[in-house]
Amino acid sequence: MKKEQAILFSDKELQAILDRRKTQFRITANSDICPYAVDDILWVKEKYAKLESSGSYAYFTAEENEKGIYKWLPASGMPKKAARIFLRITGIRKEKLQNISEEDAKAEGVDPITWQSIGMGYMDSSNSKSYRIGFYKSWRLSKIKSVEAEWKNNPDVWVITFELWTVTIEA
């Protein structure tokens, strides 16, 4: 049965989705049952502002933030009626975190980087860029407080593939 549910992404991930560079995400597999299913619709919660004059919404960007026009509300409190981005799940599989391929790391929307750029040059002295290294850095930064999700523990993860289904016009 198709479900609709909310999801949060970082500002950087959100931009990668809008740029159509991010088409996958991973979550730690805490059970044998994935909380998502193919064809489920995810509505993305993001920083927003309600425009009192029109009742419409504005959405956070670095440029808009610098203007200081809006009072930004936290993404966690965004109601579904304010959502502009909807994703449709197209695939689900389970794998070990460290088994991510270069292609899948690129689909995570990260930038390719070198081991040297994150202070781990001893891992590879060739100074070659890799999306897997970019994903490693992103995972470490986002899961820093979860011991179970640590890279070194190589947990099982659900790999969720999605397509950008709908983006409503910004205010």
Largest pleated sheet: 5 strands, mixed
DSSP strand count: 7
Order of helices and strands: EHEEEEHEHHE
Average of pLDDT: 87
Strands across the major sheet, in which order? 1-3-6-7-2
Low-confidence stretches: none
Strand content: 25-35%
| Total of DSSP H or I helical runs spanning 4+ residues | 4
The level of helicity is 10-25%
Structural class: alpha+beta
Radius of gyration: 18 Å
Morphology call: globular
SSE topology sketch:
Blueprint: E1 4-8, H1 11-18, E2 24-28, E3 41-45, E4 48-50, E5 57-59, H2 62-67, E6 85-96, H3 102-107, H4 131-142, E7 156-167
Parallel strand pairs: 1-3
Antiparallel strand pairs: 2-7, 3-6, 4-5, 6-7
Quick summary:
The protein is α+β, with helices and mostly antiparallel strands.
